Amino acid sequence: MRLADLPGRWRQEAATIRQRYADDRLAALCEALADDLERALKDADEQLLTPAQAAADPEILWDSADHIALQVRTGKITNHGRRHRPLVRRGDLPRKPAAKPVEPSAEDADAPPLDEFTRRAIARRS
Length: 126
Fold this sequence. Notes:
Blueprint: H1 6-21, H2 24-45, E1 48-49, H3 51-56, H4 65-73, E2 88-89, H5 106-110, H6 119-125
Antiparallel strand pairs: 1-2
Helix pairs in contact: 1-2
């Protein structure tokens, strides 16, 4: 799960708390925390980074400062700095997609447990 997904999840939790437990105070707290996180994420998107700083960010898609600088030079990303000293807005950079949880397939459900594939278990079967 990415950090940007948390405000929506917290709002869903607030709705669940309100519906299941009729606890408006706790639900309001969850919503207030979601709002705070959302504001903090917007502020982070406004942060200006050098291409090297942007490339070091684990959420940024491109891992090369040279590639980011090339995107600035070609005008694909707005330069918020000076010429030869580019600064890019974090929110302008593409993010890596969130990793999807791996669902076990039907074949995996029928597969024997991993401990059955140890050398000792294989030797016993032979």
